[in-house]
Amino acid sequence: MPNAEELLDILLKNRGITPENRERFLNPSYEEHLYDPFLMKNMERVCVRIFEAIEAKEKIVVYSDYDCDGIPAAVIMHDFFTKIGYTNFYIYIPDRHDEGYGLHMDAIEEFIKTDVKLIITFDLGITAIAEVAEAQANGVDVIVTDHHLPHEHVPQAYAILNPKQVGCEYPDKMLCGAGIAFKLVQALVSKYGEYWNISNGWEKWLLDMAGIATLADQVPLLDENRVLAYYGLKVLQKNRRPGLQELWKKMDIKTENLVEEDVTFMLAPRLNAASRMDSPMRSFEVLSEMDPVKARVLAEHLEKINKERKSNVAQIMKEVKHALSEREDKTIIVIGSPKWRVGVLGLVASKIVEEYKRPTFVWGSEGSDTIRGSCRSIGGVNLVELMTGLPEGSLLEFGGHVGAGGFSVAHTEVHFLEERLIAVHSELKIENTEVEEQQIDATITLDDVTEKNFKVVEMLAPYGMANPKPTFLFKNVKIAEVKEFGKEKNHLEIVFQSEKRKLVKSIAFFKTRESYNRPLIAGESVDLVATFEKSFFAGRTTLRLRIVDIY
């Protein structure tokens, strides 16, 4: 086993952290490691336009996406306008079911009618050429802030803030939508803060929203994103928002011990449940509401619809497993039902991919005229490439990234979708459908599960994309005890025993002893892949392992 210093060197090297970047990575600094927001192309122009709109008391619309990136971005802008006492603005978040993703012409036409003078988009808009043109032609300026990759032609907006746009020399191209919202407020405060009587550094309180989105939106946790996530967690630990206080209570999470997994696996699904099961405004309200009584009611509602979301997904998965058990195995899975709720189909597609290791397209319509769906990929399959290769007319609309996307399809065409996708997949000759091997940082022993080594691992937190949680291989470890726990006995606990008779507890949520490819019997030895973590259960702090795999 390497010593603590050697272990740290290994972990940093595995993540591509060079000796020059070591200090910056291990000790993120708000003052030193955040870039000047005015390095972003058009930032000066955007700040001046917003200032002029405020001075002229123009009606401003903050138009954001309905996910766990767009909603925190809207909260950042809401808090900024509230702080300076500006009231002639409102938040518009499109409905996932009725409108879908993006800037919509119907909304633009309504804004024109109601004398809106400025629209600022967050986490969307970089492809909305017609919608932006319509607004601008009717005297409504549009500032597009987005982090998605621009196409060859971009909207003729008043200004665009996007680190990925041509000619933008901003050093970190990988900010999420709320990260860009935070940089915008940072720029506004630095330029006009004295005029608005905002104390220097006030914007740091908005880092909780930037941090939630940075963690939830799966952007690389390197460079500036690492700073936003690191300090975002620190602000979340201070727990100043009544709605979040209530949600953490319901999740039985003590905020002083908050880690990134609490955001990604516990909070984000609840915030996303609003758009899937109700209106995205419910999440916005939970995050922005400062009245504790109202916040409690909002949090209770969000918890309720999250339970409905879980139940909905579980029911659909039951139907999926039954249907797939009666079908032959194919290179691509296409499955759906007119009864299935469109808002949860992305979650269903992810679960199918996890279980069946196939690119998956899931569709539903809930009685509407159009069938809509979500798709998820695995291995080397590019979903956009797949959908682009389909015969004309196969899909009404589609979009997304390499690994995740959405589509709509006519009722008459949906039954041909699977065979057409399989044909395109075959033509593209894509080698796929196997998950990359689990990245293992080092092989160690159970006796190395110590506080000293945990402190080394902890130095790399928060973990996420491009900075995965350090993962270790424990070879030939003896099982001392196996049991399932939880109300439904759907979580697994295994106690392992080292050669020096040290006992180490390990757990896996939503797994049982049947979940692995070998029997788990006390007295037998196995190879274990696991990560280190701290448990704070029942007020006791203990070091344990989180099981990744057993073989």
Topology:
Elements: H1 4-14, H2 22-26, H3 30-33, H4 43-55, E1 60-64, H5 70-83, E2 89-92, H6 105-113, E3 118-122, H7 129-137, E4 141-145, E5 159-161, H8 177-196, H9 207-216, H10 223-238, H11 242-250, H12 260-277, H13 281-288, H14 292-325, E6 333-337, H15 345-356, E7 360-364, E8 371-376, H16 383-388, E9 397-400, E10 404-409, H17 417-428, E11 442-443, H18 451-458, E12 472-485, E13 491-497, E14 503-508, E15 525-535, E16 542-550
Parallel strand pairs: 1-2, 1-3, 3-4, 4-5, 6-7, 11-12, 14-16
Antiparallel strand pairs: 7-8, 8-10, 9-10, 12-13, 12-15, 13-14, 15-16
Helix pairs in contact: 1-18, 4-8, 5-8, 5-9, 5-13, 6-7, 8-9, 9-10, 11-14, 12-13, 12-14, 13-14, 14-15
Task: Tell me about this structure.
With 551 residues, the chain is an alpha/beta fold. It is 40% helix and 18% strand. It contains 18 helices and 16 strands. Helix 12 crosses helix 14. It is globular. About 1% of the residues have low confidence.
Please give a quick description of this structure.
The chain is α/β, with parallel strands linked by helices. It has 18 helices and 16 strands.
